[in-house]
Design goal:
Blueprint: E1 2-4, E2 8-9, E3 12-14, E4 17-18, E5 21-24, E6 27-31, E7 34-36, E8 39-41, E9 44-45, E10 48-51, E11 54-58, E12 60-64, E13 67-69, E14 72-74, E15 78-79, E16 82-85, E17 90-94, E18 97-99, E19 102-104, E20 109-110, E21 113-117, E22 121-125, E23 128-130, E24 133-134, E25 137-140, E26 143-147, E27 160-169, E28 172-173, E29 179-180, E30 183-192, E31 194-206, E32 209-211, E33 214-215, E34 218-221, E35 224-228, E36 230-238, E37 245-250, E38 253-256, E39 262-275, E40 278-280, E41 283-284, E42 287-290
Parallel strand pairs: 1-6, 2-7, 3-8, 4-9, 5-10, 6-11, 7-12, 8-13, 9-14, 10-15, 11-16, 12-17, 13-18, 14-19, 15-20, 16-21, 17-22, 18-23, 19-24, 20-25, 21-26, 22-31, 23-32, 24-33, 25-34, 26-35, 31-39, 32-40, 33-41, 34-42
Antiparallel strand pairs: 27-30, 27-37, 28-29, 36-39, 37-38
Length: 293
């Protein structure tokens, strides 16, 4: 169930939950949620997108001073506080605790967050996880996977278009009764692709503590299972333009075109700031293992 709420404070839930997709100890799917001083106890099992507080955190969400105590087991995208953070929005987690085992049969398992995509996670600070963690790939004591593949080294070829708009002026008459027939006028203007500088985006993981034995196949870390940042460009398009005739100019040559799609190149980067984190325990796996990442 999707919850859109301003503040969710000083609440508690004590129950075992058996779910399917997007299940949390407090909220299954949260949109624009502010949570403070909330506690949840009990086991959560079966399914994916499972979190001790929120299963699926969308848009701008804040979770502070909250904890979950209990075991979490399912397939993928499992977290002690939040299971899954998609690419939209801005999520911050501060001073939260997770006690219990987290067991996934597939990927993206973390002591606090299972996976964050698209640069929407802003911070995980002053959080603790106590309990063993198992999964297949991308498994971490704080977060299983920080994933952002939007910025890539795309080649930019900026195009300029000359658009002619046809305007119809209907027939009319003046106050003396003189009749004027309808007629067309034509306006021409130029449009072009553009480059937008988005700057550098960061996710901060600081002052977190993990005491856990972590077992997985590959991409296993005491703090982060796998950090996939990026730099370069990503693109968006606009094609709903109205015009009568259109021409594209390439290398000084003007040619007619039947369709105009403008491209916006978004340039920037996304990276992690990792400082003052502590991991204590054993890490077991086959490939790509690290005490921190």
């Amino acid at each position: 169930q999707i919850q859109t709420i301003r503040t969710f404070a000083t609440q508690s839930n004590s129950s075992n939950i058996t779910g399917g997709r997007a299940v949390g100890g407090i909220i299954g799917q949260g949109y624009e949620v502010s949570i403070n001083n909330v506690k949840a106890t009990g086991n959560i099992k079966k399914g994916d997108y499972l979190g001790g507080i929120i299963g699926y955190a969308r848009a701008k969400c804040s979770i502070k001073n909250s904890y979950h105590k209990g075991n979490i087991s399912g397939t993928e995208r499992l977290g002690g506080i939040v299971g899954y953070i998609p690419s939209e929005g801005e999520v911050a987690i501060d001073s939260c605790w997770s006690w219990g085992e987290i067991n996934g049969t597939s990927d993206y398992v973390g002591g606090i967050v299972g996976i964050s995509e698209g640069g929407s996670l802003k911070e995980i600070t002053r959080c603790n996880h106590f309990g063993d963690i198992t999964g297949k790939c991308y498994v971490g004591g704080i977060i299983g996977n920080i994933k952002f593949i939007g910025y890539q080294n795309n080649n930019m070829t900026l195009q300029t278009y000359s658009l002619t708009v046809q305007n119809w002026h209907p027939a009319s008459h003046d106050q003396d009764g003189k009749w004027y027939p309808g007629y067309y006028t034509y306006d021409t203007y130029n449009v072009s692709d553009e480059v937008v500088q988005e700057g550098n985006k960061y996710v901060t993981l600081s002052n977190n503590l993990v005491i856990s034995n972590i077992t997985a196949c590959s991409y296993v870390g005491g703090i982060i299972g796998y950090d996939l940042g990026g730099s370069g460009t990503w693109t968006s398009t606009t094609s709903n333009l109205y015009y009568y005739k259109a021409y594209r100019t390439t290398n000084g040559t003007k040619e007619p075109v039947s369709n105009v799609t403008l491209i916006t190149y978004h340039q920037g980067s996304y990276s992690a700031i990792i400082e003052n984190n502590i991991f204590s325990g054993e890490i077991s796996g086959k490939f790509n293992l690290g005490g921190i990442i």
